[in-house]
Design a protein that fits this description.
Layout (H helix, E strand, L loop, with lengths): L2 H35 L3 H24 L6 H28 L4 H6 L3 H81 L9 H18 L3 E9 L1 H8 L1 H18 L4 E7 L2 E6 L5 H13 L5 E3 L2 E3 L2 E9 L6 H17 L5 E3 L3
Parallel strand pairs: 6-7
Antiparallel strand pairs: 1-3, 1-6, 2-3, 4-5
The structure holds guanosine-5'-triphosphate (GTP).
The site of guanosine-5'-triphosphate has 16 residues, from strand 1, helix 7 and helix 8.
């Protein structure tokens, strides 16, 4: 039985003890009423009190079997009640035998009051014990509640701790994954790109050309390769040092990008060589105009760190399918055309074989 159930049982026992006192008092009142007035109606009251007393005694007996703390007092009450009812019966019989109203005689000899006092004392003891017991159970219940609350708080703290820990671990893991991903992306970018200018490198040129070539072949459309080599770049290196040469390469890359369309692909092939792939165009004139725009970029000195550097660009152009039906062949053709431009006085463009 839980402490809460035991406490309820004690409450019911206390209720029965109080009711028992009232029932015995009722029986006694009936007796006194009859002895004082001679009205038989009081005998009913007395009988009801007696019946209720026995009923409550039986119930207490049953309930106490489960919680035996007040057994000695109950047994004593039973004896006293027995004596009390004996005394009541005797006084009634005496009155009845007398045949006429003789209250003073019978009541003066009645020991009921004395017995009633003894009964009430025992009942008070029982109630006192039960009250004490109830307090113990209440204390236990309070203790359990406190323990449950502490347990719940600890459990919550544990759950929060676990959540925080897993959150931290997940965040750390995520951070680590993002870092790894960033490093991987950086590495893969470095594989495909030129470190100095950030442009795609030679490796990317091959890959891109292969893609453009397959697409153009499939849709039977032309594409063009511009092979570009700076003029006079060595002089810049020799005159101002490699650092300025590097800065010039970066500047030139950005100048080239400004005149290109989004679909054009510019890469640094190596040294001062660049490759431009024009993925789609309708007329050759577009290529001519693009080459002219590129050359025009160098009509004025390029400013690098306040220094005015005079360079140019020689361009060789090869078109698919006119100048070759394979990527390698086309690259070679563009390179060849570039040398023709160099030979023709630099800072100019040539189509392969023309
Ligand atoms: N600063 C710098 N120089 C480089 C780099 N890579 C190659 N070079 C130099 O670029 C120069 C390229 O040589 P060339 O193409 O003969 O030089 P050029 O003066 O343009 O000669 P032409 O092409 O005949 O006009 C060489 O001196 C290389 O050492 C680089 O990453 N940075």
């Amino acid at each position: 039985m839980s402490f809460s159930e035991q406490k309820d049982l004690v409450d019911r026992q206390r209720y029965d003890v109080a009711a028992l006192g009232k029932a015995i008092t009722n029986a006694e009142s009936g007796q006194r009423g009859y002895l004082l007035t001679g009205h038989t109606l009081f005998l009913d009251t007395m009988e009801q009190g007696r019946v209720e007393t026995h009923r409550l005694l039986a119930r207490l007996d049953k309930r106490i079997a489960k919680a035996d703390e007040i057994r000695p007092e109950l047994e004593r009450v039973k004896q006293l009640v027995h004596q009390k009812f004996d005394a009541i019966d005797k006084s009634i019989q005496v009155q009845m035998r007398a045949g006429s109203y003789a209250s003073h005689l019978t009541l003066s000899k009645d020991k009921g009051r004395e017995l009633m006092k003894l009964i009430n004392d025992r009942l008070s003891e029982m109630d006192g014990k039960l009250e004490h017991l109830r307090g113990d159970y209440e204390q236990e219940i309070r203790q359990r509640v406190i323990e449950a609350v502490i347990g719940a708080v600890l459990l919550c703290m544990l759950i929060i701790g676990v959540l925080l820990f897993s959150y931290r671990s997940t965040t750390d893991l995520l951070e680590q994954m993002l870092k790894t991903q960033a490093v991987t992306e950086q590495l893969s970018h470095q594989v495909d790109h030129d470190l100095l200018t950030g442009l795609p490198n030679r490796r990317s040129v091959d890959e891109h050309l292969e893609t453009v070539f397959q697409r153009s072949r499939h849709v039977s459309k032309p594409f063009a390769i511009f092979f570009m080599d700076l003029d006079g770049f060595k002089h810049v290196n020799d005159e101002y040092g490699h650092e300025i040469g590097d800065a010039l390469l970066v500047e030139v890359s950005s100048m080239f990008q400004k005149v290109l369309r989004q679909t054009d692909f510019l890469a640094r092939q190596g040294g001062d060589e660049f490759v431009l792939v024009v993925g789609s165009y309708l007329h050759r004139m577009e290529l001519v105009q693009l080459a002219q725009r590129l050359i025009k970029l160098f009509s004025r000195p390029v400013i690098v760190r306040t220094m005015a550097l005079n360079i140019g660009v020689s361009i060789g152009i090869a078109e698919y399918p006119r100048h070759g039906k394979q990527v390698k062949q086309l690259l070679h053709a563009a390179d060849k055309a570039m040398y023709v431009s160099k030979k023709n006085g630099k800072n100019s463009f040539s189509f392969d074989g023309e």
